TrEMBL record:
It comes from the Eukaryota. Pfam families: Hs1pro-1_C, Hs1pro-1_N. Residues 1-201 form the Nematode resistance protein-like HSPRO1 N-terminal domain. This is Nematode resistance protein-like HSPRO1. InterPro entries: Hs1pro-1_C, HSPRO1/HSPRO2, HSPRO1_N. Signal peptide: none annotated. One of its GO terms (biological process) is defense response. Residues 204-297 form the Hs1pro-1 C-terminal domain.
Length: 305
């Protein structure tokens, strides 16, 4: 017989009659971190003093703060930029002349070429801004016949006198103290040097002068007095860190050069901030915005790769 009470004997279902409602909001509970990060605190005076002494920052600051061209408003801005570029040339020589078999020269070469390219680009932007301002236009020291004694030696001279189609006399001089032209005689570094020189040629096209570091200078433009501005002789005297005689390894030199380059660009950033503040106060918003863009690029390129 059929059991008519089969419904009452069935196990009641615990499932709800209605289907659950789905929400578009994703709710995730994140547990609190178990490890607390200590708050950043300022370094002690002893640590700061040791850091500055290690990088020889007091000597570098003297080079940056020396005002030798009263009519050149951008001296304090461009001097540390040229310092960083010249130290980069020394860094290139140190790294690419490393004879250790496990040194990845190809990756080092790629990064150093990119570093030099970024530095030259920022310098060219600063020079272009200087030429657009009527107060600073034409004030950067360039090599002329007066600065080379009124004449150029016929032999063993790094200066060339060109007469342009309009009768203008132009002196194109290659720096005698910069490392870049001298590094080009090394077969291992010749390709890197040529790339940097071509970068200078391309980036400085919008400027009425060039850097004078061995670039082709196809336009026949005058060269800035690089050695006088950068103080290359005094700068090369700071190539050894204080503990170089104790810690004799290439890693110590690499750290030394990297931080000197970084501190030089930090100096450029500080000078840009002061200039931006003055331009905002004087309502020169167009120039302030241009310098803000250069400052942003300066900070982006200064970050370690």
């Amino acid at each position: 017989m059929v059991d008519l009470g089969w419904k009452t004997k069935m196990i009641p279902s615990e499932l709800p009659n209605k289907s659950p409602k789905f929400t578009s909001k994703l709710q995730i509970s994140i547990p609190p971190p178990k490890v607390r990060v200590a708050e950043l605190s300022a370094a002690s005076e002893m640590a700061c003093s040791a850091y500055e002494s290690y990088l020889r920052l007091p000597e570098l600051k003297k080079l940056w703060e020396a005002c030798e061209f009263p009519g050149w408003k951008s001296e304090s801005l461009l001097k540390p930029a040229f310092t960083a570029l010249e130290i980069t040339f020394r860094f290139i020589f140190t790294v690419l002349s490393d004879g250790r078999p496990y040194s990845n020269r190809r990756q080092w070469r790629r990064r150093l070429e990119e570093l030099a390219r970024s530095e030259v680009e920022i310098i060219s932007l600063l020079c272009e801004e200087e030429e657009e301002d009527t107060e600073t236009r034409g004030t950067i020291p360039v090599v002329d016949l007066t600065s080379v004694g009124g004449a150029v030696a016929p032999e063993n001279s790094s200066a060339e006198v060109w007469k342009m189609a309009d009768g203008t006399v132009v002196v194109s001089q290659v720096s005698q103290m910069s490392l870049l032209p001298r590094l080009g005689v090394w077969p291992e570094l010749e390709e890197v040097v040529r790339k940097i020189q071509y970068t200078i040629e391309c980036q400085m096209q919008a400027c009425p002068y060039t850097l004078g570091l061995g670039e082709p200078n196809l336009s026949g433009k005058p060269s800035i007095n690089y050695d006088l501005i950068c103080k290359t002789a005094e700068l090369h005297a700071l190539k050894k860190c204080p503990n170089d005689d104790v810690v004799k390894n290439l890693e110590n030199r690499a750290v030394y050069y990297v931080h000197q380059i970084l501190e030089s660009w930090i100096r450029v950033g500080k000078q840009l901030l002061e200039r931006i503040s003055d331009e905002i106060d004087s309502q020169s918003y167009d120039r302030a915005s241009n310098h803000c863009w250069i400052l942003e690029k300066n900070m982006d390129d200064s970050e370690p790769d």
